[in-house]
Design goal:
Blueprint: H1 5-19, H2 23-37, H3 41-61, H4 66-83, H5 88-103, E1 115-116, E2 119-120, H6 122-137, H7 139-147, E3 153-160, E4 169-177, H8 183-194, E5 201-202, E6 205-207, E7 211-214, E8 233-234, E9 256-257, E10 272-275, E11 288-290, E12 306-312, H9 314-321, E13 336-342
Length: 344
Amino acid sequence: MPITETLQKAWDAADESMKSGEPDKALEILRSEAWDACDNNMQKARTLRYAGDAGTMIGEMNTAGQKRHWQKAHKNYRDALNLDPKDKETRRNMNKLASMMDEKAISLGAGMQLFDEGNPTPLGLVAMLVAGMLLLVSFKVISDWLDDTENPVVTLEFSYMPAGSTERTTALVEIELYEDDAPLHVENFIILAEESRYDFTIFHRIIDGFMIQGGDFENRDGSGGYTGKWFGYCDGKQFDSSNNRYSPETCDQSRWTLPDEADNGQLHRPGALAMAKTSAPNTGSSQFYIVPEDSTPSHLDGVHTVFGMVVSGLDHITAISEVPTGNNDRPIDEVRLVRVTVND
């Protein structure tokens, strides 16, 4: 598929910004212009590679935040290779960055790497050996340890323009996911996050004193989105009009939804992460909302599934809830969800 003029201009502008020593500007162009203009995975991969290049450059210029910028850049390269594994330029740039990070003793941001492209690393071989020995010595100890797991935590990177400001703000918000209380919702959210579905989407509906809503990676207006895998529900139903059970083959992917887990005892407190859906049961998919500090929408308890809680950055959620909005509660200046990262 040919590259559109819009996408080529965005790439060229980002490249020019990096050559001019303005990698932050390049990233903004890639997020706000290039990504939306991509028509296929190869174009998305190239955009992510440029984002990795910009992040590498930012890390070189900003030594105080070098670790964070380089880890994000490395993730961009990894995501690019997932979309286009044959891109040699991306692999070269990623390997170069990995060497730079190794010299500075900066981890790659993915925890201890036990496997590299399916093959165990030296650390992986040691880990497997130790695990085997421990298993032989005391299976019960290992089982007890595995049962004592912590909830997963995700980091949401926002870009928004606070009320009364003329400049955009970048904010990081950490959310703990309640894996035991809403396992299917957490699984679905993590799948979509790891597939980069939420990256470069927007929060399309914001109501001050109530909540902020996003997650429509399909249409970006609140009318789209679907689950990361088949959970047995098609538009909230398990059976069609002929009483035949739906399957992934008989239900279009755009109609895949989740079963409700709203009776898990979790309430809509300030900072709550919950699943958006229609008035019908079992219609949650990818859209979600977050409750700001000045809201306690208890009328949603037991109706919408709460599956997480903000543990850091709630002040930014509140600030986002106060941005000016227009028709259909849509922000006048886009509130962008730049990336969702599943923390290891």
